[in-house]
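Support request, please re-run this one:
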Amino acid sequence: MVIRTMKAAKAKRSSKPTPMKAVVKNAGKSKRSVMKLKRLGRGALSSALAAMVKGTGGRKDLKFEQAPKAATNTMHQVPLKERAGYPLKFPKGSVDPKNWRTGSRCGSERGNKPVIVDFSRAAWLPDDWGQGVKATSPIQRADIKPGSGGTFTVYMSPDGKTFYHKPAAEKYAGYKFTEEGGRNGQIRKAQLQGVQAMQVVRAQIKELEFTRGQNVGVDPDEVLFKLLTPKEKKCLPSKNTFHFCIVSARRATSLSGIQDIFMVQTQFTEAGVTPTWYVDEASVKDYRRLGLHAVVGGKLTAARNKALKDAAKMGKACVQASDDISAWEYRHGKQAKERTDDAMNKAHDAAKRYILSPVAAARFILAKMRGADGDKKPQLGGLYPLGSSSRTFAGPEFVKHNFIIGDFFVVDKSKVLFDEEMTLKEDYDFTCAHIKAHGSVALPAHDSRGETLLQCWRGS
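Re-run finished. Output below.
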């Protein structure tokens, strides 16, 4: 299982041998050994919209790059109503955003241009105003060289007037625009962009071409479960077997935090479960205000332990996840014929990709744990945090005595708790405690034929 970090500009292949397998972390951004696509960040859809406006604006004096296919695909799929620039309120007489156009007083060549609802939104924009993007007109001066502009962000009043700058918009509205007045729009922006970031990552995993109107969902659970052994299939648990927990703190008031929160929450609710958020006491009301099922967990290790104890009281396995995972990816393909970088990279690149829900991933891991050979079963299963996923295509079915990162793991029936005196590397200590108590942990990267890789992405 692998977590990739979306904050990194690239995911590099490892050039040094390592006895472990898997890959690491963060939602939504790599050049491909692992992926031939550049990882896409928060502004991917806005950039794709700008590229589309430039491409359809009729200007031949522009130099610009087309947006990545994954971003363009997702951008076209998102309805106008689900974009941050769409107004939250529509007073009587408001113009429908699909009919937005600039004023015509500049003449047919420079005016009356279509305005497309933007994926972003100014922090001070009132609820009944909107934000859009329009194509600019060609530069008339002969001494100006072709540039990379071509678009302009504009603000649309309820009655459809176009404004290019905040002071002019305020003058027309008759009052000052403030960030407090724009807060509802910013919260909605963060919620929408969280879900959209998830869609962009899914499109990247699949390397999809543009297919209008088709959102990228998870693959059927049965596809994954077919790869379990007959013994493991008998141990396959239902989703009701688990207590799903997300450990977080102080993120429900920042826009970037809200975006990540909804990116993760959506993936659990899509799978038919409502996770419990274990958060710091000072923030619990903020999380609940977002509609989340949040309880006070305390600091990191205390929150982790409360989640473990709550699951034990319910008689359930405990699943813990970080608050910024953007996708769970599964790869199925043949194992490398030899343990060389070229062979492992080739096997990795040839593998078929599947997108999973966190619920399916947890069920798969627990089936592996409960179906393990021997009387003493591993009670902890999860992810391993290296940066080279291609190396997972050479090696044994399980790694049983190695570190499991705290970003996504499953605990079955164990009294082992986190050391609450630790403030760093608590998951290292937790892994060691499980190995000491139960003899092993479970890191399911390959099936018995060496044909599978399960991994997840983190996004920020």
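DSSP finds twelve helices and 16 strands in the chain. The longest strand covers residues 325-332.
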